[in-house]
Specification:
The structure holds two protein chains of two kinds. By secondary structure, chain A is an all-alpha fold. Chain A is built from 23 helices and two strands. In chain A, helix 3 runs antiparallel to helix 4, helix 12 packs parallel to helix 18 and helix 13 packs antiparallel against helix 18. Chain A starts with 5 loop residues before the first helix and ends with a helix. In chain A, about 60% of the residues are buried. Chain B has one domain. Helix content of chain B is about 75%, strand content about 0%. In chain B, helix 9 runs antiparallel to helix 11. The chains are: A mainly alpha, B mainly alpha. Chain B: Belongs to the complex I subunit 2 family.
């Protein structure tokens, strides 16, 4: 499909904005940034409106042979569409969150953010292996600068940790990509998704990709960069980090690891489950004892991402769809929670939970929104968090009831730490005078909270809107995974037709060996 | 007729020699007053010689038609690629040097002449088809380089650099010469084709292996590959900065070009014998370059370790022993020359209120607030040297590691690229000092147009726009590499 290069335009708008704001003063810079991100949001809405659900798998494709060794090649399927939509939806809100709080070097700040937007859309839209890698890695530079220049007290340590951890993960992936391009003779992602790599090679390739995506995701035990980076990043930086950057890891699994190395994915599924189970329980317990609001939400992000990974490695439609929904929901909810923290941080300049208390009395509307997002984070039915977690856990239950059992404790622990946080910050007595004197939300903050609240409720009440675009792609992925899928311990249906299922499984395994 | 053809092929060398001798007379006649004029004339000569090399490169010249003086000298596409980079590096040195040397009252007429004769030697190095022609080129370059390193006669550090370079350089030349004599003794030839034929593909005799090892050791010194890298930080730090710019660009191209030609043409029938040496030197250079740089607080020393580190990456291309590997190495080399030029021009532009050079990394604190343009350029160089996309420095690593994987050296590629993360640490340190720390406000110097233009041009090349050149760069590097393999 050719025609109007809307994806290239979506990459170009923030890039042009980034160059324009670099030299501008603070007032102009934030205005230009807001306009650029809003234009991209409108383009994103057009993209969704024009996306033909049930049509071709890859739409809006464009290509240009500009470079040696790789191509400028873009195109999206339903999965990429949803993540691009999430990105362009969150970006204007991030600019809004920075509106008053960024005072030093505003031009460079907004330039870094707009550059981030270009690169994130590029990651989701890239259809060439190396174009993907360049976009994926390039995000390190603006994020390093955002944390390092505008972050809090320990910003330098956090920025180094973020940069070196993620770089180390990614370089091994690059070597694996060279091997794949060499073996398959193409760098085209859709072709590679159908290519059957030899099973013994898949093991190594899977591990190399895992090194990168597990750090980005982040999975326990390589998650330790995340709390540092989150706590030290400015509010908008945290929103983007939690909202979109973490999704790159999940996107990587769903776009590369699963379809390209199905046998290796099945082989390593127990590893992923084990790490995810550990993550859910350990990081939830860590979150329970935090004194810093942002750190608490950062650890809760790790726990949520662990539910994403078990859903992805459940090898069935429910699990995969659930994972995608958690990613979208977590993008909105964690983003909104960081915004909520930003609102009170802007007023009191501390993230210590003990410095707040009784905010429901002087900030009733704030308390209302905070409650909604807290509930969504817990996964209360009717909010976006419920749908994804339910599907994901249901998916993994078919594979292993033990994994489902352990991971479901995450929901209980999640309720514990979130409600405990909410009680300490919003309820109780107003023990601090300065906290008690804080004014409620102003117009700008309303404008940021309301769209997020609407989408969170929408996704909770009518998830079909978000499920429809990706259903076909998830089904295609499930079909691709089916031959390699490990046998579940609790799927009664399969047991009833056991001989047939086993026969086809053995046949497929035999085919796999023949490569 | 044959002589005429040979003279035609060596036109660039003749032009440099003759104009060098004429300018030497001019210098003798009118003294240091003419230094500027001689500089300008030398730049013109170098640019003209670079232009002379273009047809051979674009036309993928290779084979006996390009051999002069009985195959002692080869004017093929490979030498043309090297020469363009060499003359470019030398010309940039001459453009940035006068402003620097003037401040020390050291802008003497000999400076451009020495650079010119060094360039002549380097041109011979990359074109040599015979071990003796190789040695003549190498020594012509080295002798000029020793003097250049010690050019600030009143400066202790410069004199020390010159002396160290001379002593260690002579030792390396001796080792190389010993290797050459052994090779000659055991193969009976000094021309590359003859050596290749004599060594054959069978088992190498111990004597010939010794010869190979000594030749490679001598050359490893010249490219400052570990474990023969020790001189590099001291010489880079002590030499006047324009001379350091020169050392980091032109001689590096020449010595690496030489190494490639000797490995592929002379010892091409015995790849197993030198591959393991090259792999060892590559990995050691990457690791030592990365670890050594971490503790440095002088930016010129940092760049020295960075050059050791980068040579390691380039050697991975050679270790492949394939045409793709050599081509990748040439692409890396071209990008590395531009990165070095950008880095050192930016360093030259760092001067304090009294117009003295600022070399300490700590003095760069908060440069992004006081001199944002310079800070952006230096940050681009650092990220580029670290090989972080989307900067163009990434492309050099990309092609080299791709070639390594294609040559089935996956383990080497994986170890090399993992070690590059160590290197990223110290490049980040420079960016951190410039962007995250409070302003020290040390850098005040005003800069002339030439520096600014050079820095802007090099920065644009290193920006993502550089990727638009990849098709073209690969075509040229491919031409050059194929000339080496189809000699």
């Amino acid at each position: 499909m050719s025609g109007f290069p809307i994806l290239s335009l979506m990459l170009l708008v923030p890039l042009v904005g980034a160059v324009a704001v670099l030299k501008a003063g603070r007032e102009q810079a934030r205005m230009i940034a807001l306009v650029a991100t809003l234009i991209d949001a409108v383009l994103g809405a057009m993209l969704w409106a024009k996306f033909d659900i049930g049509g071709a798998q890859w739409q809006f494709t464009e290509r240009a042979a500009l470079f040696a060794g790789f191509e400028w090649k873009l195109g999206i399927d339903g999965i990429a569409l949803l993540l691009i939509a999430l990105t362009v939806f969150l970006m204007p809100i991030c600019i809004g969150a920075s509106w008053n709080s960024i005072e030093k070097r505003a031009g460079e700040y907004y330039a870094a953010f707009l550059l981030m937007e270009t690169l994130m859309i590029g990651v989701f839209a890239a259809q060439d292996l190396f174009l993907f890698y360049i976009m994926f890695e390039a995000g390190l530079i603006p994020m390093y600068l955002i944390i390092g220049i505008w972050g809090g007290a320990d910003r330098i340590y956090a920025s180094y940790k973020f940069f070196l951890y993620t770089l180390f993960g990614s370089v091994l992936m690059l070597i694996a990509m060279f091997w794949m391009a060499n073996a398959a003779g193409t760098t085209d992602i859709p072709t590679l998704m159908q290519y059957n790599f030899p099973v013994h090679a898949q093991t190594w390739l899977w591990l190399a990709f895992f090194a990168s995506f597990a750090v980005k995701m982040p999975m326990w035990p390589v998650h330790t960069w995340l709390p540092d980076a989150h706590v030290q990043a400015p509010t908008a930086g945290s929103v983007i980090l939690a909202g979109v950057l973490l999704k790159m890891g999940g996107y990587g699994f769903i776009r590369f690891s699963l379809p390209m190395f199905p046998e290796a994915s099945a082989q390593f599924a127990p590893l992923v489950w084990g790490l995810s189970m550990a993550a859910v329980v350990i990081t939830s317990l860590i979150a329970l004892v935090q004194h810093d609001i942002k750190k608490l939400i950062a650890y809760s992000s790790v726990a949520h991402m662990a539910i994403v990974t078990i859903g992805l490695f459940a090898f069935n439609q429910q699990g995969l769809e659930g994972s995608m929904l958690i990613m979208l929901s977590h993008g909105l909810v964690a983003g909104a929670l960081f915004l909520a923290v930003g609102v009170i941080y802007d007023r009191l300049h501390t993230r210590e939970i003990d410095r707040y208390g009784g905010l429901a009395i002087n900030m009733p509307y704030y308390a209302l929104f905070f409650l909604l997002f807290t509930m969504a984070s817990i996964g209360l039915p009717g909010t976006s968090g419920f749908v994804g977690e339910f599907l994901s856990l249901m998916g993994v239950y078919q594979m292993s009831s033990w994994v489902a059992l352990v991971c479901t404790t995450g929901i209980i622990l999640g309720a514990a730490y979130m409600l405990y946080l909410y009680r300490r910050v919003v309820f109780g007595v107003q023990k601090n005078e300065d906290a008690a004197a804080m004014p409620d939300l102003d117009g700008r903050e309303w404008a940021m909270m309301v769209p997020l609240a609407i989408v969170v409720l929408w996704m909770g009440v009518y998830p079909e809107t978000f499920l429809a675009p990706m259903r076909k792609d998830i089904a295609a992925l499930e079909a691709r995974l089916a031959p390699a899928s490990p046998k579940g311990d609790s799927d009664v249906k399969i047991a009833a037709v056991k001989p047939a299922a086993e026969g086809s499984h053995a046949e497929m395994a035999h085919e796999g060996e023949a490569h | 007729m044959d002589l005429l053809h040979s003279l035609q092929l060596t036109l660039a060398e003749e032009l440099i020699s003759v104009s060098g001798l004429i300018l030497l007379l001019v210098a003798a006649w009118s003294g240091d007053k003419a230094a500027r004029l001689i500089s300008i004339a030398s730049v013109a000569v170098l640019v003209a010689c670079a232009a002379l090399a273009v047809p051979a490169l674009a036309g993928a010249a290779a084979g006996p038609d390009t051999y002069a003086f009985g195959a002692q000298y080869k004017a093929d596409a490979f030498s043309a690629f090297g020469k363009i980079l060499i003359y470019l590096g030398a010309a940039v040195t001459l453009i940035v040097a006068p402003a620097f040397l003037d401040r020390f009252n050291a802008m003497r007429a000999e400076f451009p002449l020495l650079v010119l004769f060094a360039a002549l030697g380097m041109g011979i190095m990359v074109s040599a088809g015979d071990l003796l022609a190789l040695y003549i080129g190498l020594e012509l370059n080295s002798l000029a380089a020793y003097v250049l390193a010690a050019f600030l006669r009143t400066d202790d550090r410069s004199a020390e650099a010159g002396l160290k370079y001379f002593v260690l350089g002579s030792l390396a030349s001796g080792i190389l010469l010993y290797g050459i004599s052994l090779t000659y003794g055991f193969s009976g030839h000094t021309d590359f084709a003859g050596i290749r034929a004599a060594l054959g593909a069978g088992v190498m005799s111990t004597g010939a292996t010794f010869g190979l090892v000594f030749v490679l050791a001598g050359l490893a010194f010249k490219i400052s590959a570990a474990p023969f890298h020790m001189w590099t930080p001291d010489v880079y730090e002590g030499a006047p900065t324009p001379v350091t710019t020169f050392f980091a660009t032109a001689p590096k191209v020449a010595a690496l070009g030489l190494l490639m030609r000797v490995s592929i043409e002379a010892f091409g029938s015995q790849p197993g014998a030198w591959q393991q040496i090259v792999i060892f030197a590559a990995l050691l250079s990457i690791v030592i370059g990365a670890l050594g740089a971490i503790g440095q607080d002088n930016i010129k020393r940092l760049m020295a370790y960075s050059s050791i580190n980068n040579v390691g990456f380039m050697l991975i291309g050679l270790a492949c022993g394939t045409q793709a590997g050599v081509s990748a190495m040439l692409v890396y080399l071209a990008i590395y020359v531009v990165m070095s030029i950008a880095g050192f021009v930016a360093i030259l532009m760092l001067r304090d209120a009294d117009d003295r050079p600022v070399e300490s990394i700590a003095d760069l604190s908060g440069l992004s607030k006081t001199r944002p343009g310079l800070a952006v350029a230096l940050a681009a160089v650092m990220f580029s040297l670290a090989g972080i996309p989307p900067l163009f420095g990434f492309w050099g690593k990309f092609v080299v590691f791709q070639a390594a994987v294609q040559a089935n050296l996956v383990a080497l590629a994986a170890i090399g690229i993992a070690a590059s993360v160590i290197g990223a640490f110290y490049y980040l340190k420079v960016v951190k000092v410039m962007y995250f720390d409070d302003a020290a406000d040390k850098v005040h110097g005003r800069n002339d147009l030439a520096h600014t233009v050079l820095l802007v041009a090099a920065s644009i090349f290193l920006s993502p726009l550089g990727y638009l050149l990849t098709n073209w760069l690969h075509l040229l590097a491919g031409n050059a590499a194929s000339a080496l393999f189809h000699a």
